[in-house]
Amino acid sequence: MVGLECFLDVVRALGMGSCLSLEGGSAYGPVPSSPGPGNKRRKRRVTGNSSATAVAPPSNNLEMWLHRIPGRQFLNGSSDFASLFCKQGKKGVNQDAMIAWENFGSPDTIFCGVFDGHGPFGHVVAKKVRDALPLKLTSQWVLTNNAKKGAANDTNEAASYQDHKDNEHCELFMTLKDSFLKAFKVMDKELKLHPRIDCYCSGTTAVTLVKQGQDLVIANVGDSRALLGTRDEDGSLVAVQLTVDLKPNLPRETERIMRFKGRVFALQNEPEVA
């Protein structure tokens, strides 16, 4: 991930139901990031019923710890509400990674992400971002919420119910926006400092979302795309594009790259690739 700059969007997903949720168990039992009745002390309120839980993964064997989390799916498979599938192409190493994580910090929250690596270490970067970014997002979510909590205590509580609900949705979006931006920046810095990953010519796209209740917040970089499956007036299934592919052929994206001392040019053997 080079020069990450989130493009954020929020969609009120009315009538979606629990799309992309997962149901699963674990032979190892629950872990802190999937709070249940025995983990209430770890719960942190964002606003109303919104919450996030601080995650403290072990410093050793992070991959095994992640595999023990119930409701976290990252391999080909399906459940009652989600399906993940990735197929090897003809270019060599499969550099794609994906994740769908139910009960992400709270029972009504889901995290999903797709990462398309590029370059010699693209497959390594994509998998590392898949594993590390959700944890960084959770940590930033808690920190951002705690920072805003003191200011909220000084506000006037004599507001109407509708104003309260509107403020609740606005606060949730702003909290997640700040958390996404900080998590992406921390992830980018960590990759640049990684001793065994050369990020000069390698990186990954990232299209990520958090669905909490009927709210959907999306953050993406690169040309991986988020789509919403819905139905038209005739009942036919249609796909609604939720994100913009951030490619160098977009004037705004070219300007951003140049602003950060980057270059945009076509490959000699693949002129259609910038």
UniProtKB/TrEMBL annotation:
Signal peptide: none annotated. CDD domains: PP2Cc. Residues 29-54 are annotated as: Disordered. Pfam families: PP2C. SMART domains: PP2Cc. GO terms for molecular function: protein serine/threonine phosphatase activity. Residues 81-274 form the PPM-type phosphatase domain. InterPro entries: PP2C, PPM-type-like_dom_sf, PPM-type_phosphatase-like_dom. It comes from the Eukaryota. Coiled coil: none annotated. This is PPM-type phosphatase domain-containing protein. It comes from Prunus armeniaca (Apricot). The lineage of its organism: Eukaryota, Viridiplantae, Streptophyta, Embryophyta, Tracheophyta.
